[in-house]
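Risk mitigation, structural track. In case the binding assays with glutamine fail to produce interpretable data, a predicted complex structure has been prepared as a fallback.
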Amino acid sequence: EAVLDRIAAVDGKVGAYITVDNEGALAAADAADARLAKGEGGPLTGLPVGLKDLLCTKGVKTTCASKMLEHFVPTYDATVVTKLKAAGAVFPGKLNMDEFAMGSTTEHSALQTTRNPWDLTRFPGGSSGGSAAAVAADLCLASLGSDTGGSIRQPASHCGIVGMKPTYGRVSRYGLVAFASSLDQIGPMTKSVEDCALMMEAISGHDPKDSTSVPKEVPAYRSLMKEDEGKGLSGMTVGIPAEYWQAEGVDPEVMASVTEAKALLESLGARCVPVSLPHTEYAVAAYYVIAPSEASSNLARYDGVRYGISEREGEGLLALYKQTRSEGFGEEVKRRIIIGTYALSSGYYDAYYKKASQVRTLILDDFTKAFQSCDFIISPAAPSPAGKIGEEGDDPLKMYLSDIFTLSANLAGIPGMSVPCGFTGEGLPVGLQLLGRHFDEATLLKVAWHFE
Ligand code: GLN
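Fallback model:
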């Protein structure tokens, strides 16, 4: 009730929720109360968790912030939703995002604007901007986002909260509306590192419905996080990649905050060593071939027949496709579909998608080598703090370049996290990114916990 009251009072200004499910949430909360009274509570019983609006929820609209799916009501729950329900969570509603998760500011939502709770003239980051703003503004206690190239970590950084992109395969993608299937991962966005660990325990694990989810045991993240309590970080080695720390165009205040964070890690006993990720300069190019290619294929299903809107005035099937897709998709989504269709077309596949996949392997090799001499890597999560709404204008290239620090983790499949590490002079939050070995989310949580 407190969360629903707060949404009613504040969300008119923030714009985080696309759908608020008052009735469903209150009924689930009553059921949670009853279970608690019987001593049957789970780890998240009664806790309100917001969901990015690309996670399928049975009987509740799932729009992907697109005109295409504006009225789409799924007939089943995503696996993460099923798992959260089993752990006792309650869902106040569905959160705004860039259309089909394509963007870095949430301004590409076709349905509404979300504002950064720290400064309402600024964007919250994206694409999981609604998920980040909702947690920052106490419109839920935790949320889920999805991260294809930074969409959990970057908005977490801009909104001063914790966000984790798990290892590819750690969390089932069943029921996540696909953007780029080989890069997408669902992950938690929370107020604290401990909450992040709690959410990770609830959503991780193998799912027979997602063949890319990995049959590995889910660690007890919360107790692992605290196992060396009091010992600081002695014995741990932090990788400092020159390619990230000497990158051009990074805001000096962001650099100052992450430099202080590095000093904090050293004061806790960690040893910093230089590492090299020489293929970093190709990450943006490789990502912006691979992600649009996979998107063009995934979004072919919105044909006016099977899902979402259906528009036809002219004659025949082609008219149906053309009109539905012209009206249903926004500019950024169309741009990606066109780039992806071009890159995958006959005669170009080898030159673009295959080449980008080869670069992807080189990027993975860089990380594998770097992790031979360090336990985890740190960098800024984003090159600048949250900008003003409307400021990025219509310059897609500028937007793509701002993903420089986050994309590589998705290309390599490794886990990444953003944890608040300071503020700019104007009071805007700055996030420190932590990158780890495959399936070693526990180390990231253990380190991030020292920033609480
Ligand atoms: N900003 C990146 C893009 O536009 C990443 C998006 C994401 O992680 N979903 O593709």
